[in-house]
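Reading group handout, session on sequence-to-structure problems. Before we discuss, look at one worked example. The prompt was deliberately terse, the way you'd type it at a terminal:

> structure Anthocyanin 5-aromatic acyltransferase

The input record follows.
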Amino acid sequence: MAGHTTKLVRSSASSAMATTVKLAPPEEDMVLRLCALDVPWVVVPPIQRVLLFDDAGGQLPPFPFLVGSLRASLTATLARFPPLAGRVVFLPSTGDAAIDCSASYSGGGGVRFVVAEMDDADARKLAADADHDVDAFRAFTPELQTDALPAEVLAVRVTRLKGGVAVGVAVHHAVADGRSLWRFLEAWAGACRGDDAVLVAAPPTFDLPDVALPAGGEELVRSTLRKYAPHLPLANPQFARNPINMPRRTFTLAAQLIHRLKQRIVNLTTSVPSVQPTMAAPSSFVAITALTWVSFVRSKHPVTISDADDVYLLFFFDCRGRRGIDPQVSDNYFGTCITGFLVKATASELLAEDGVAVAAAALQGEVRRAAENPVSGWNWLDLFSWLPQDRLVNVSGSTRFPAYEVADFGWGAPSRTELVSVNNGQVVLIAAKGGCGGVQASVCMHPDHMDAFNAHFLNCLVD
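And the output record:
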């Protein structure tokens, strides 16, 4: 392993020292050209996620030992995930963008590993508060330079806190989606705690099959890249990286509450004749997302959203293992393999007494369409050219992401994990801590609407 020993500079406030984790050369050069599913994400800010570990039970090892374990196991894990230690590059001779995995051992590659200390940040309080300390969470994740190519793929930040530790990661969204990120974190955590079952698990695959897209082919990829990033190697002039400082609140929904919500939706369908023939019992994703959408509209009505307005919900669909794709994408595929689908309704429909059932039926129908033809939503970024952002809910993540279960590095599951890179109107879903069918839903909204959203969301769950 190249690089220097990581050092911690102590301070009463905040300090950091960065080194670079590098790998031995792979057996052969790996240059993975981005496909049409990847290239829209070149201009999207990176994924930033933080995992908080409080030391209430005294289970955390001494900080220098913890840092050493994380760094050594990261090196071992990156050997299985070489794209993460590479760089996203522009190939001017062909007009392609690609992941150059050979950069992991050259002068410009590797993973930036930052060690820091913030004495004034209380891990236990941060993990317990429903409302996020946005500035603190952002400080726990590393910046990732993606504005121009070549661009970093992954960076890590480990921060000692009062009574705990924060592990923050940032990853280029054209290289990994949420499912891929959790797969990497699961492998890293397993390597850190010496779990042989994780170490011998099926290795990830990085070559995406020749997925059939409308008017597919290499020229489609290049034209899409030129459309969204016309000034390469400058990568994202369309998406200025201004920090989103709007309030964020996290709701933890127990399985019993979710079951009650599903039953309420089923009962309400009796009053929606157009829904009855097609409405099946909703999944947890459909039920929670439908309630979120209705609560969003109610919180903005009538000041921002009027009865006659169209309102929208955008969700992302994982294409792995789907029979609607030929050839089928392996469940082990590591990359960005999601497409986007849009649901529309009128505000008056969602504001009605049976609005949550109407929302669930509309969403369920679009989920069914996505399953039948997943790649039809590959060009989701085009939607942002006309969608009214103040009437849009954007849902990311999955109720099935076992975020707490897989992130045990040897000192227990995180006490809290949150996506830091979120937008106004975004909802992030993961499986709740402790499993058993619970779901964690984190919401980012303008402060003028958050309390009204909170009231409606919770009232519907307990009624």
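Points for discussion. First: The first helix runs from residue 63 to 78. Second: Residues 248-462 form a domain with the Chloramphenicol Acetyltransferase fold (CATH 3.30.559.10).
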